């Protein structure tokens, strides 16, 4: 088959049931009737399967040197050390 | 420091603020007895009898009846204390006013006299008045410096150096980590002159704010007020928010509490973070400095008591390790 645009020779590929002709000269692609729709459908399915997970709740914003795991410390040591820090210079 | 105007509930049947609280000792040293005598002159009632609330190398506080008497740190000079006392007397509803604008003397120490209030209960941290504190700091920060007598620089940055210096003879791993973090701070965060213009707008600053710097006055049912004028002055007001910021960044203060505090400050018109797209643009350096200071104080206290640092203190030392690493 000849490329309808540049008259180069076209090579046939088969990908996931879609028949594609690509020109070896200008790299243009020729789709048979219905193949664009097939590609669109495949894309939609792929997107559905691989949809990004919902974004995590925003982390409690802090500086770069902040504790890596906020939530690890408070609550379980209401003892001397923490009290001293919150109430003294 | 635990601050001057603290009084434990004394009414019969009242629950003490902390189950572990032991009765405060009676005055024993000459300085403590001198403070008690000054207190007895100012007090309207001599009950409860004189008790020592704070007995440290630098600060001593004695309560007598309805007053507390504070011996300031040996380095405090009258020229710095006088305008600070005068400023606190001009900030009704924000700072507790002193009973006298004139400092007294006892054993070569400057002494000030205050009405007794009731402090935040360390045993009921869930009820700590974070929003009230934030509003008080916002109102303090909104007072133009020109409305007050000329004040010295706020004491925050110099205090970082002073507290870190307590570790100078400690060669343990924790002390080395804290010193490395201190060495990574910019000079102005340690109170050292660096020759440039201030990197943040200057305004009226408390200089040493933490939960021990609040009392209700009149005791128990009065409004919350800020206490301790020792570090009040002109400076970068973000320093007054930086201690809770440091606790939050270290993972010791719940994010929700930190955000409540910050939101209350901003809602009350607090200006310290004005113009910053991100609060941490302003908070980063002072919060690093205060994390270092609090860690240094904790390590020094543990060493003096002859014990290992505890879990919360280790969290702060770990924070110092990250501060030093982030600056490399």
How would you sum up this structure, described in words?
The complex is a heterodimer of chains A (89) and B (328). Chain A is an alpha+beta fold and 89 residues long. Chain A has a domain at 1-36. In chain A, 26% of the residues lie in helices and 17% in strands. Chain A has a 3-stranded antiparallel sheet. In chain A, strand 1 and strand 2 (18-23) form a beta hairpin. Chain B is 38% helix and 13% strand. Chain B has 9 helices and 10 strands. Chain B has helices spanning 30-42, 78-89, 130-141, 156-165, 173-183, 239-250, 255-267, 279-304, 311-327, and strands at 51-55, 60-64, 67-71, 104-106, 109-115, 118-119, 202-205, 214-217, 223-226, 233-236. In chain B, the strands form 3 sheets. In chain B, strands 1-2-3-5-4 form a 5-stranded antiparallel sheet, sandwiched between helices. Chain B has a 3-stranded antiparallel sheet with strand order 6-8-9, with helices on one face. The radius of gyration of chain B is 19 Å and the shape is globular. Chain B starts with 29 loop residues before the first helix and ends with a helix. Residues 1-19 of chain B have low confidence and may be disordered.
Topology:
The complex is a heterodimer of chains A (89) and B (328).
Chain A: E1 10-15, E2 18-23, E3 29-31, H1 35-49, H2 80-87
Chain B: H1 30-42, E1 51-55, E2 60-64, E3 67-71, H2 78-89, E4 104-106, E5 109-115, E6 118-119, H3 130-141, H4 156-165, H5 173-183, E7 202-205, E8 214-217, E9 223-226, E10 233-236, H6 239-250, H7 255-267, H8 279-304, H9 311-327
Antiparallel strand pairs in B: 1-2, 2-3, 3-5, 4-5, 6-8, 7-10, 8-9
Helix pairs in contact in B: 3-7, 4-8, 5-8, 5-9, 6-8, 8-9
